[in-house]
Design a protein that fits this description.
The protein contains 8 helices and 15 strands. Strand 11 and strand 12 form a beta hairpin. Pfam families: ApbE (PF02424).
Length: about 325
C-alpha cells in the first residue's frame, strides 16, 4: 500500500501522521486540528488552558470541564498504582534543578527537601459534583509527560471513526501508535556504540541502523505492534550538564533527584496510559518495575522493558512482540 505523510510541530515535538494515499489531504487538517484543540485547552504551557488556570489559582477551586476531570482522575489512579513515582505536581523540583535556566547549579539538599513538600498528587482535590479542581497553594501541575500522548490517542480515535484501518502516528519517537501492524525500532539509549545486557548477563543483539550507515547510531531491537501504542522514556537528549555531570529531566518525586536508569519502553493499547506508565517506571528499581507492571497487567494489557543504570535490561511480557 502507498502512504502519504504530514509532519507538524506541536507539543515541542514533530508529530508525524502516515495514512493511506487514498484519503484526501483535508484529513490531515482535521487530525492536526484535534491536536491543536487539546494543546489549547489542556497543555499547562498554554495561556488560559484549564491546567494553566488551575496553576495560576493554586489554593483555590477552579471551574473546569468534564474532560479535565476525566484526565486528572485517571492520572491520579495510575499514580497510586505506580507508588507515587509518577507525580504531575513535580514542577517545583523541575524548576529547582534549573531546567528553565541557562546556567543551572546543583541544588542543595535543603532546597530539594523544601521543594518536595509541594510535590504531592494526593493534594489535588477533584470536586466532580461542581466540576472544579484545586491544588495546594504554590503547587504546580506539569502536563509534559502525558498531554502529547493524550492528544494523539484522540486523533487515532478519530481515524477509526473515519474508517482508516492502516496508519501510524509518531509523536517525536516517545509515543507511537500503530493502526494495523507496524514494525517499530527501539533505539539504543547510549550515545556511543555499547552492548547492553539482559538480566542473565548475556549480550543483547544490537543491529546497526541500516539507514544511518554510521557506527554511532544503533538499534536496540525491533518489535511488531498491531493496534497498540509504544511509549518510551529516556534522558539521552534532555538533561542538564552541571559540573561535567549529566542530570536527566525525569526526577523522582520521592528522592528529589533525577533517576539514573537509561530507558523504559511500554506497550499498551492506550498511548495516554503508556506515556504515564513509562515515565513512572523510569524511577523504579528492577524489582519494583516487575511488581508494578504485574499490578498494571490486572487492569490492562501491558508489556515493557527497563534498562537500568548499568545497562542491564529487564523484560516484562515482551517476547510476543519481537
Amino acid at each position: 500500500m502507498m502512504y502519504k505523510v504530514q509532519v507538524r510541530f506541536l507539543f515541542h515535538s514533530d508529530i508525524k501522521i502516515k495514512i493511506p494515499e487514498i484519503y484526501d489531504d483535508s484529513i490531515f487538517d482535521k487530525l492536526f486540528g484535534i491536536l491543536e484543540d487539546i494543546d489549547e485547552k489542556y497543555n499547562s504551557y498554554s495561556e488560559n488552558s484549564y491546567i494553566d488556570k488551575i496553576n495560576k489559582n493554586s489554593g483555590h477551586f477552579v471551574k473546569v470541564n468534564d474532560e479535565t476531570i476525566k484526565i486528572l482522575s485517571k492520572i491520579i489512579h495510575l499514580s497510586k498504582i505506580i507508588g507515587g513515582e509518577y507525580d504531575i505536581t513535580i514542577m517545583p523540583l523541575i524548576r529547582l534543578w534549573g531546567f528553565y535556566k541557562q546556567n543551572p547549579i546543583l541544588p542543595s539538599l535543603d532546597k530539594i527537601k523544601k521543594a518536595k513538600r509541594l510535590v504531592d498528587y494526593k493534594k489535588i482535590i477533584i470536586d466532580k459534583k461542581r466540576n472544579r479542581i484545586k491544588i495546594e497553594k504554590n503547587q504546580e501541575i506539569i502536563t509534559g509527560s502525558f498531554i502529547k500522548a493524550y492528544a494523539i490517542e484522540k486523533i487515532v480515535e478519530e481515524m477509526k471513526k473515519i474508517g482508516i484501518k492502516d496508519a501510524i502516528v509518531n509523536a517525536g519517537g516517545s509515543s507511537i501508535i500503530a493502526i494495523d501492524e507496524w514494525g517499530i525500532i527501539a533505539e539504543n539509549p547510549e550515545e556511543e556504540r555499547e552492548i547492553l545486557r539482559n538480566k542473565k548477563g548475556m549480550p543483547i543483539k544490537i543491529t546497526q541502523n541500516q539507514y544511518a550507515g554510521d557506527d554511532e547510531y544503533n538499534d536496540l531491537f525491533e518489535i511488531k505492534i498491531k493496534n497498540k501504542s509504544y511509549s518510551t522514556s529516556n534522558q539521552k537528549n534532555t538533561y542538564l550538564l552541571i559540573n561535567n555531570e549529566k542530570y536527566g529531566h525525569i526526577i523522582s518525586p520521592k528522592t528529589g533527584f533525577p533517576s539514573q536508569n537509561k530507558q523504559v519502553g511500554v506497550i499498551t493499547e492506550n498511548a495516554f496510559f503508556g506515556d504515564i506508565i513509562s515515565t513512572g517506571m523510569y524511577n523504579q528499581t528492577p524489582e519494583k518495575f516487575y511488581e508494578i507492571m504485574g499490578k498494571l497487567s490486572k487492569e490492562m494489557e501491558i508489556s515493557g522493558f527497563l534498562i537500568d543504570k548499568d545497562g542491564e535490561i529487564f523484560y516484562f511480557n515482551m517476547e510476543k512482540y519481537f
